[in-house]
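Our working data are protein records whose layout never changes between entries. The record below serves as our worked example for the rest of this section:
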Amino acid sequence: MKMYGSVINICTTHAAVWTGMEAFETAFLELKASYEELELTGNDQLSGTKGITLTKDEKKDLVLKKAVVAASALGVYAASSKNTLLKEQVRTSSYWELGHGSIIVIIQRIENIITLAEAHLPNLGASGF
């Protein structure tokens, strides 16, 4: 979770790089908001609140859907730029593939997508994504 916070800080600091790329900006900002909600939901569960499992599952579902959008944008960019390494790194972009496994594994997959997105922001912008 700390790594994700660092990525958010970097992206916020360098928002000018990706501002204006409507599709990517929307997907990234929605993913960020949903992930923060998931983190808060997890904190609520730790404090013993009842009913969190259902809420957490709903939040996880929302985060996964948004992660698929971000991964798909990276995949399209990778294919159009013939970047086979990036294409391989984001090949697990279906909802089921991202959401399969423990919450720790799912969070790692989402963090990987965010890291890749942050690393390729300038290229995505130049390509119109």
The chain has one domain: 2-11+26-127. The radius of gyration is 15 Å. Residues 52-80 form the longest helix (29 residues).
